[in-house]
Amino acid sequence: MTVLLSHRMLLAGWARRATPTAAQWIHHNPEKMTLLEMLGTTNLRKSTPKDYRILREIFNSFERYSGVGNDIQLTLPERAANELIMCEKKREYEKGIMDPSKFAPGHHIFQVLTKVKKSPLFQILRRMPKGAALKAHDTSMCSSRVVIEITYRDNLWVCTTQNGCRVEEFRFAKDKPKDVSFENGEWQPMEKLRELRGEENLRKYLQMRFSMYPLASFTTNAHAWRHMMGIFGLLDGLLQYAPVWGDYYYNALKEFYADGVQYLEVRSVLPQLYSLDGSRMPKRETVQIYKDTLERFKKEHPGFIDSKLIYAPIRHVQPELVGEYIKECTELNKEFPSFVVGFDLVGQEDVGHPLSNFAAELLKLPDHIHFYFHAGQTNWYGSHVDQNLLDAIVLGTKRIGHGYTITKHPVLMRLAKYLNIALEVCPVSNQVLQLGSDYRSHPAATLIAENVPMVIASGSPGFWRAAPLSHDFYMAFLGIAPMNADLKFLKRTAKNSIKYSSLKDEAKAEAMEKWKKQWDKWVENIVRQRKKDSETEKK
Amino acid sequence: MTVLLSHRMLLAGWARRATPTAAQWIHHNPEKMTLLEMLGTTNLRKSTPKDYRILREIFNSFERYSGVGNDIQLTLPERAANELIMCEKKREYEKGIMDPSKFAPGHHIFQVLTKVKKSPLFQILRRMPKGAALKAHDTSMCSSRVVIEITYRDNLWVCTTQNGCRVEEFRFAKDKPKDVSFENGEWQPMEKLRELRGEENLRKYLQMRFSMYPLASFTTNAHAWRHMMGIFGLLDGLLQYAPVWGDYYYNALKEFYADGVQYLEVRSVLPQLYSLDGSRMPKRETVQIYKDTLERFKKEHPGFIDSKLIYAPIRHVQPELVGEYIKECTELNKEFPSFVVGFDLVGQEDVGHPLSNFAAELLKLPDHIHFYFHAGQTNWYGSHVDQNLLDAIVLGTKRIGHGYTITKHPVLMRLAKYLNIALEVCPVSNQVLQLGSDYRSHPAATLIAENVPMVIASGSPGFWRAAPLSHDFYMAFLGIAPMNADLKFLKRTAKNSIKYSSLKDEAKAEAMEKWKKQWDKWVENIVRQRKKDSETEKK
């Protein structure tokens, strides 16, 4: 008790000076006195109201200094911008506390998409330089607008069933395809179908088919996955046509860049693209098209940093085939050493093989090619899918795609922190694929509080008609992070995306500079706009 | 690297002997080598498949030995019972992985209540001696069957609107009440209404009005709360009638005891009960009725341990009134020292005052009367409600009601563990009050993994037509805990409920014995039933 009393007096002394300083001291000198030692073995019920207030303030500050962004010092202009951002955030937050039905992150994105787009906070975040988007899938990155434009190209055939009512497959070809994979399926030129169903009608229909809409509520996440795999399947014939592949990627780069993303890592299954005569090209051609398109894009957009490729074939295969993939990845990396930089396996984990099945094959990948494994994208706890998290870490992954279940595995969470493995948190994807319904229950809140390395990513934004990355930032900032998470949180998250990218050290430094330039401009614009607004008000 | 290599060799040596032993050694000697030191600073990508398997097994075991129940050693009969229990658990779990729509904890309880009752696993859990139920509210503990029976008593009047279609209020009185609180409200004898609407019809209607059914989906948790407060209000006139109050409590004890609960802590707002002439009695009478009823019940049920009272008035008041409550609690404890043992504040936190507002008053409570605060029953992160968690802890609470948001506050989670504060986890309540939809996303999974003190509790089971405690155990065991959580988890959870009760040391030891007797009988019954079943199969 005497020990505690002296602690108490010490704390009281600190509190008089400035509690945040005290908390910072504790934070930076954890070896000197732990949070728990501070409490000692006393009976808290003997506290005076003053004791209580001091302890409370100290723990509060301690918590404030433990989360993501605590290491960031804002510049003067950033502080001014922060005030405006927090004013908009608090407006939405407090409206939500008054009437939770008005809080966007409490709803399914499909129900609030338009509303969110009008939010002043979203408008600010949309323009924010976000650094890198580290998780995007090859054929779900672009908006449906881009995909629908592709359906206007020459030589496109469409296979329909139900007398033209249901579109089953697309194919580019000189002549009408002869093979039909669907019962009662019929091929016809796309122009003909458009004429038949009416342009506007068909556009609306395709917009629906190219996204998860309108199904905000699936019975289970398995059901949502099946639906999503159906979209991927429908797009295959459209996007795997060699002349289209590069254009789709170009448009993705364009859309991400317009959304404040300067660097993009794409996970691709690397399909063998086809030509008008139906012949398939080798995989290296797919990579070559990526590479050429990227060079063109970079030349035309000097503010853009770069893009890299993670070879990510489907996981629902036998170990021998994974062995083949590993060989392919090694070859491709030899040919495109600065572009094909990583390996992953994709597809619904719940129904796939666990990573451990493939361990012997995976360990054959040369260690300069990194693993970026999807893992723990599930809500089962203790199933083999859950084990993927452990396997990803023990296999030496550099990042983890989703890791949704990691908060149920504190040991692994500590390992991720220690080994500096970043989690790619994809809020909107998790909701659409039915892992959670309310953003306020997203487990990443714990990652933020524990300061576990994390980045905000999207995955397949085109399928949910969301912005490439802005909706994920909005939901994370307003719905997942604590109310007091501010510009420090946003800055740390943006910087993390470059820090945890596969860029090499020197390139990383350059990337950080390119990002910083845009960041400072963005901050300046907010401050300038604010001045303008308050001057207008005065008049 | 050399350091790591020697670690590696050490680990390999362990693994050859028996990995669980190695993990146990690490677990019990954390000061000798930490989880993280084991990894060293090596490149995991240089692992051989054998290295990988060893590390994987060690971390796996480490995790297994960290969760709730890891300290329990099962006896031989318990091991036999465990096999049967895990067989039933796995059956449900694996069916769920095959088709998630068949997994009960993935649904709203209202949709699977009947299905769950038929589950063999539920049947086992229903009979399990659960120890104590540490969270139950005074007028929502009993099934609606009990409440409906009360409506058959003499002298009951009912106030209806919409021409008898909507029941608004009940009152026991000799003559027709004169005051009407509802527009167009009319009082009539209950018999008359029953005759008018038909007995069966009215029974069904009341069953609906006395529960949260059929609304499995409210727009927000504020909406769910308003609905629930409406039920409490409707029940007031029925249950606050002095002769009814004791009977309701008696029935609650009976129903909880039949559900495997031997000890009950009730949170009561302690209303002033009324007599047939409308006069109100002092609060001490309410407690006296509780006390007398309890004595009667204990005499008639020697296997029952005890019941205690936590005075828990509504939190939506000014600090001065809380000061009054504290005085009342002190007085009542003086008169009923072994029965009125604690203090709490109830009602929706989101719309109430934060605990900190009342701190000065609360700290006046003599410290032998414990705090059992509700706190963090919210999904807002960083709001004042969230702060209640911190305040509850710093004010010296013995347990925390819900603490749903604690995993977003690792600092507080560590404090709860250090100070041995148990969280009262109420899975079904959290779902019905819209904090989460799928049990697999319940934050208590993290508490289980981190071995933070916790008990499983219910709250207002009558309002969701659930068993007093069995549905919460079922959802926690199957839906929240990891697949491999077994009888050790159940035993630790049952024992915790007595450990974290307000019983004094000696009484606690006696309680543990009384529970143990029933526990051993239950285990024996499972094993006997199993033998019988396998003999029948052989024939």
From TrEMBL, chains A, B:
Belongs to the metallo-dependent hydrolases superfamily. Adenosine and AMP deaminases family. ADGF subfamily. Its main location: secreted. One of its GO terms (biological process) is inosine biosynthetic process. InterPro entries: A_deaminase_dom, A_deaminase_N, ADGF, Ado/ade_deaminase, Metal_Hydrolase. This is Adenosine deaminase. It is found in: Secreted. CDD domains: ADGF. It comes from Drosophila melanogaster (Fruit fly). PANTHER family: ADENOSINE DEAMINASE (PTHR11409), ADENOSINE DEAMINASE 2 (PTHR11409:SF39). GO terms for cellular component: extracellular space. Residues 223-514 form the Adenosine deaminase domain. Keywords: Hydrolase, Metal-binding, Secreted, Signal. The keyword Signal applies. It catalyses: adenosine + H2O + H(+) = inosine + NH4(+). Its EC number is 3.5.4.4. GO terms for molecular function: metal ion binding. SUPFAM superfamilies: Metallo-dependent hydrolases. Residues 39-125 form the Adenosine/AMP deaminase N-terminal domain. Its cofactor is Zn(2+).
